[in-house]
Amino acid sequence: MAVEEITLDTAPELFAQDDITLLPGAADKIRSLLSERNLTGHGLRVFVAGGGCSGMQYGMAIEKEAGEFDTIVESNGVQVFVDPTSMMYLGGATIDYVDSLMGGGFRIENPNAVSTCGCGHSFRTSGQAAASSGDDCGHH
């Protein structure tokens, strides 16, 4: 039985990815942070890394420019940079900023996550094994 190599040409639907949506509240907060730090022309890097109580965790950092292969999402005057590996996990996600009496922070609604930690900082996709029970992430 022959093994067929899958490439962008032979199966483009496997690699099709939705963009990330940056909501106005998140864009306003990012603009405010960049202005406070006098970082005009910078953007927000959003990434996924292994770890957290659910197996994967979100990260964010302010960066001057996108990497060579990054997806760049421009919304409401703000640039968001996402590396190709993270984009596999974040396609279709929505980023918002929520400010409440319990504190504020960026919130990612990710359609690729099949389970999330109670704090919302980590998640698991359908291709991952569940994290061991009893783990507490400590993000309270």
Walk me through this protein's architecture.
The chain is of the alpha+beta class and 140 residues long. The chain has one domain: Sandwich (Hypothetical Protein Aq_1857, Chain: A). It is built from three helices and nine strands. The chain is globular, with a radius of gyration of 17 Å. Residues 3-17 and 130-140 have low confidence and may be disordered. It has helices spanning 12-15, 24-36, 84-90; strands spanning 21-22, 43-50, 56-63, 71-75, 78-82, 94-100, 103-109, 113-116, 122-125. Strand 6 and strand 7 (103-109) form a beta hairpin. The chain has a six-stranded mixed beta sheet. It has a three-stranded mixed beta sheet with strand order 1-6-7. It starts with 11 loop residues before the first helix and ends in a 15-residue tail after the last strand.
